[in-house]
């Protein structure tokens, strides 16, 4: 079972460059989300989506864009990378129509370094 | 706003000893509570969850957690730790009134001594 797949696993960018982190899930989950993980701060929600065509901001949305054109895919875009965006990024999806009773499944993470 | 505090950043425990990880949350109503584990280089995996009912919940890998409303706590326990339990553990709280979003604590890294 593929579950939640993130690419790339590692990326180094220069300040000001743009890039897209890809996330795909094959579980037909309506809910998808992006978190960033920084030491001592746990995971913080960047953006989330409750279905195709619907996105919303999380706790730390600045500097990131998302779109949800299909149920399966939820890419995260950095338009102009900054060193403060150096982090490990996790995509997660949840079934049960996005309700908290559904288990949140995580990808393996994408480690991004911005120089 | 909901919040989660994990007071211990690191815990070192001997193999075979018991383990307890602390979690305190802040939320007005009854929250949805979760514990996740993250092995090195991996994503997070759900250990257990509490929504309602029996305040002692059992999870995978021999873990259990107890919800104590009076203390706003949801501590994770394991009676006998195995070397494979070395990982980082995250407590999380969610609420339907908060848009079903999860808020994570800062994590506790567990080291297991042979």
Overview of this protein structure:
The complex is a heterodimer of chains A (115) and B (114). Chain A has 115 residues and is mainly beta. Chain A has strands at residues 4-7, 10-13, 19-25, 31-37, 43-51, 54-57, 64-66, 76-78, 87-94, 104-106, 110-114. Chain A is 0% helix and 50% strand. In chain A, strands 2, 4, 5, 6, 9, 10 and 11 form a seven-stranded mixed beta sheet that branches. Chain A has a four-stranded antiparallel beta sheet with strand order 1-3-8-7, with no helix packed on it. Chain A is globular and about 40 Å long. In chain B, 0% of the residues lie in helices and 52% in strands. Chain B has no helices and twelve strands. In chain B, the strands form three sheets. In chain B, strands 2, 5, 6, 10, 11 and 12 form a six-stranded mixed beta sheet that branches. A four-stranded antiparallel beta sheet of chain B has the order 3-9-8-7, with no helix packed on it. In chain B, a hairpin with a 4-residue loop joins strand 8 (64-68) and strand 9 (73-78).
Describe the SSE topology.
The complex is a heterodimer of chains A (115) and B (114).
Chain A: E1 4-7, E2 10-13, E3 19-25, E4 31-37, E5 43-51, E6 54-57, E7 64-66, E8 76-78, E9 87-94, E10 104-106, E11 110-114
Parallel strand pairs in A: 2-11
Antiparallel strand pairs in A: 1-3, 3-8, 4-5, 4-9, 5-6, 7-8, 9-10, 9-11
Chain B: E1 3-5, E2 10-14, E3 19-21, E4 24-26, E5 32-38, E6 44-50, E7 56-58, E8 64-68, E9 73-78, E10 87-94, E11 102-104, E12 108-113
Parallel strand pairs in B: 2-12
Antiparallel strand pairs in B: 1-4, 3-9, 5-6, 5-10, 7-8, 8-9, 10-11, 10-12
Question: Mean pLDDT of chain B, rounded to whole units?
Answer: 92
Output the radius of gyration of chain A.
13 Å
**Total beta strand runs of chain A:** 11
- What letter string, H or E per element, gives the SSE order of chain B? EEEEEEEEEEEE
Which structural class do the helices and strands of chain B define?
mainly beta
Major sheet of chain A: 7 strands, mixed
